[in-house]
TrEMBL record:
<keyword id="KW-0812">Transmembrane</keyword>
<feature type="transmembrane region" description="Helical">
    <location>
        <begin position="196"/>
        <end position="217"/>
    </location>
</feature>
<feature type="transmembrane region" description="Helical">
    <location>
        <begin position="78"/>
        <end position="97"/>
    </location>
</feature>
<dbReference type="InterPro" id="IPR037185">
    <property type="entry name" value="EmrE-like"/>
</dbReference>
<feature type="transmembrane region" description="Helical">
    <location>
        <begin position="55"/>
        <end position="71"/>
    </location>
</feature>
<dbReference type="GO" id="GO:0016020">
    <property type="term" value="C:membrane"/>
</dbReference>
<dbReference type="Pfam" id="PF06027">
    <property type="entry name" value="SLC35F"/>
</dbReference>
<dbReference type="InterPro" id="IPR009262">
    <property type="entry name" value="SLC35_F1/F2/F6"/>
</dbReference>
<comment type="similarity">
    <text>Belongs to the SLC35F solute transporter family.</text>
</comment>
<feature type="transmembrane region" description="Helical">
    <location>
        <begin position="286"/>
        <end position="305"/>
    </location>
</feature>
<feature type="transmembrane region" description="Helical">
    <location>
        <begin position="229"/>
        <end position="253"/>
    </location>
</feature>
<dbReference type="InterPro" id="IPR052221">
    <property type="entry name" value="SLC35F_Transporter"/>
</dbReference>
<feature type="transmembrane region" description="Helical">
    <location>
        <begin position="165"/>
        <end position="184"/>
    </location>
</feature>
<keyword id="KW-1133">Transmembrane helix</keyword>
<protein>
    <submittedName>
        <fullName>Uncharacterized protein</fullName>
    </submittedName>
</protein>
<keyword id="KW-0813">Transport</keyword>
<keyword id="KW-0472">Membrane</keyword>
Length: 341
């Protein structure tokens, strides 16, 4: 069976392809939920070291994928300084979200992570000139409305949990701004059709940026930590789940597009609810379930009304500065482009 036959068979089995994409999306969702759970566990063990948590993820990515990149002995397809910027915003996003677990509950953090969708809409509208239909904007507004119920609950109406829930919510929202910029940059780099280069460079430069920030931000916290087996295992679990997450996200973006990815990641919120109930034995406020339902409705409206608002320029032989369609738009690459790659 030659490659053309395989491509023809893949196109003709749409149901199987969709099932495969849904499966991959749920793997991403599960790894994100595991990252949230282990980060929350580290915070509950009295360790306030969000940068150090990310340091181990970036180190793992650099060792695993950097080795493959060195073995290839080929030049970078994207200039190194773009990877520095990408790594910087990614590190800040991880820092603020992980820091939020010191003040807020795992459910609040994972639900408020959905603010990334709203920031991507704003970022692409202002910076890249992407235009959206009224129904798409209506769906985004519904999402923001649903997420507002989390803030209402954490303000004391329903008791969201955590020592300073509003501060934790603010840190999450700040982190999602950086995540939006990171997602936009990663989408561009993935369109260079070299996921190994993207992931390895995020690991290398993310490790260097984190290493530079630790002495100024959390060195005193690290010195006061009494390392135990539970803490070490929690850090290891966070690093492994992060490795899987960063491995799968570029692949899913390239294969299925951003809408499928965002809808899949949304289910991580319900995984977080399961972790909170069974591992922390905490009661989940009813506002969370209403918020989750409203967010799902908003994202469904956005996804079913999505259209080709902006064409995607080819980056096969183009310059790294060419504008590109991002997470909020249509699929990152067409099925034919993916199958040909």
């Amino acid at each position: 069976m030659n490659w053309c036959t395989i491509k023809s068979w893949w196109r003709s089995h749409g149901g199987l392809r969709t099932s495969y994409l849904l499966f991959l999306g749920q793997l991403v969702s599960l790894t994100l939920a595991l990252m949230s759970f282990t980060s929350s566990l580290i915070a509950s063990l009295g360790v306030d070291a969000p940068l150090t948590q990310s340091l181990f993820i970036y180190l793992t990515l650099a060792l695993a994928y950097g080795s493959l990149l060195l073995y290839r002995r080929q030049g970078l397809r994207v200039s190194w300084y773009w990877y520095v910027l990408l790594a910087f915003v990614d590190v800040q996003g991880n820092y603020f979200v992980n820091k939020a677990y010191q003040f807020s509950s795992i459910t609040s953090v994972t639900l408020l992570d959905c603010w990334t969708v709203a920031w991507v809409l704003v970022l692409t509208w202002i910076v890249l000139g992407t235009r959206y239909s009224k129904w798409q904007l209506f769906g985004a507004v519904i999402c923001v409305t649903g997420l507002g119920l989390v803030l209402l609950s954490d303000a004391g109406v329903g008791g969201g949990g955590g020592s300073k829930p509003l501060l934790g919510d603010a840190l999450v929202i700040l982190g999602t701004i950086f995540f939006a910029m990171s997602n936009v940059g990663e989408e561009f780099c993935v369109k260079k059709k070299d996921r190994i280069e993207v992931v390895s460079m995020i690991g290398v430069f993310g490790f260097l940026v984190t290493l530079c920030e630790i002495p100024f931000i959390e060195l005193k916290h690290l010195e006061s930590v009494s390392w135990t087996t539970s803490i070490v295992l929690a850090f290891a679990g966070y690093a492994m789940s992060g490795l899987m997450f960063y491995t799968l996200v570029p692949y899913v973006l390239k294969l299925s597009g951003a809408t499928m990815l965002n809808l899949s990641i949304l289910t991580a919120d319900m995984w977080a609810v399961v972790f909170r109930i069974f591992f922390y034995h905490q009661q989940v406020d009813w506002l969370y379930y209403i918020s989750f339902s409203i967010v799902v409705v908003g994202l469904v409206i956005y996804s079913v009304t999505e259209k080709d608002s902006n064409p995607v320029p080819s980056l096969e032989n183009g310059d790294a500065n060419v504008p590109y369609q991002v997470l909020a738009g249509e699929n990152a690459t067409s099925e034919n482009e993916f199958l040909a790659s």
